[in-house]
Amino acid sequence: MVFFLKRYFEVMGEAIDRAGGVIKQFTGDGVMALFGVYDGPEEGCRKALRAAGAMIEGLKEMSKILSEELNELLRMGVGIHTGPTVVGRMGLGAALYLTAVGDTVHVASRFQDRTKEYACQLIISEQVAERAGLDVSGFPQHELAVRNRTEPIVIRTIENVEEISGKSV
Hints:
Elements: H1 2-19, E1 22-27, E2 30-34, H2 41-65, E3 78-80, E4 86-90, E5 97-101, H3 103-114, E6 122-125, H4 126-132, E7 141-144, E8 153-158, H5 162-165
Parallel strand pairs: 3-6
Antiparallel strand pairs: 1-2, 4-5, 6-8, 7-8
Helix pairs in contact: 1-2, 2-4
């Protein structure tokens, strides 16, 4: 298990780093990353979408390499949202890290949770698609009720992230 998680964190971390993201934390088998902290929300959305594709591709490669040890292929779901967030360094000394808090973080986490329900690899908000300049008109649209919000959020579910790789991201 330690070997597997270490390799998984390396693959996810490399994908996020290459796309220009900042890893906030690893929790169990989950990863939270920030994009656009230094270059704005439009570029951040594009980088987050590129990272999602690289993460899923990396997991597919891990599945191939470990196929003899696995009972089934590894799968993951990614949620991406954009909006106002409080970002800053928290902690003390060696435990000082960049973090983000707020509704945007909560919403992205809910999206990730819902990827199982929608049987898709990626859920993004309409705001992410707009800011990234991504045409999502061909993907299923849903309205998602999120706790502490009066209005539902319009999302797009993308069954296979490779479907957006040829688009302008």
